[in-house]
Amino acid sequence: MTEYVLNQRGSPDVERARLRLLEEYHDPLTASQLDAIGVGEGWRCLDAGAGGGSVTRMLAERVGSTGSVLAVDLDTSLLEELVSDRVEVRRLDVLSDPLPQGAFDLVHARLLLMFLSPRVAALERLVGAARVGGWVASIAPDFSTVALSPTSPAWQRVWSYFFDAAMASGWDPGYGSRLSSDLQAAGLTDVHADYITRSGPGGSLIARLLSLTLERLREGMALLGARTGEIDEARRLLEEPACTVTSPMSCVARGRRPGTLGSR
Length: 264
Prior knowledge:
CATH class: Alpha Beta
Strand content: 15-25%
Radius of gyration: 19 Å
CATH topology: Rossmann fold
Mean pLDDT: 94
Largest sheet: 7 strands, mixed
Distance between the termini: 35 Å
Strand order of the largest sheet: 3-2-1-4-5-10-7
Shape: elongated
CATH superfamily: Vaccinia Virus protein VP39
Low-confidence stretches: none
């Protein structure tokens, strides 16, 4: 089974706090994405890499009593409470475990593909789970747009170590720049993508989210040579109101499985 670099083992409190910030930041983007697709009553949806479950909840509300949501993840501990007559939860590895084929009106995978390799192969498995004419929707960030102003040598060193530690773990922190083209490479048509970047002062939502992400990768960065004091200083700067933090670029993308379209 695939190992997820940001799993809850070892730092459950930090990771759950980070997940809450991820949901606060990305849920409005997902809501707009689902609006654009038209997800509604009676839809059959797959939420792959469902994490803390905020999108599963969102989907369950939209599909109503006649629809269904299958939420899958390597760690379902935060999803079990969502099980209902319209929500099923399964522990599942998207890269190796079988998925229902041609079964879903929507296959959703937020902040998942950047952790999987090979990514196009993972996407092709997700595409196979969508019905002909069904949608595949994803959000992925590109961390190369992150900036801190004014910057400092400590920040620059730590941010470089962040990229090295992320890539050493199998995470592609720049994947957002490739998501749209990968949707096309996986055979989807009618591909749409929006690219969103934000900025705010230190201590704002995106700054706190970046700070906790650095903390989660602290051990990996230290193994590569990052100094504890530098990591602490980088996190302090992210909380400094006088600093301006530019977010990762979020690619919000969707496409359809080709073929004869159904009723939706």
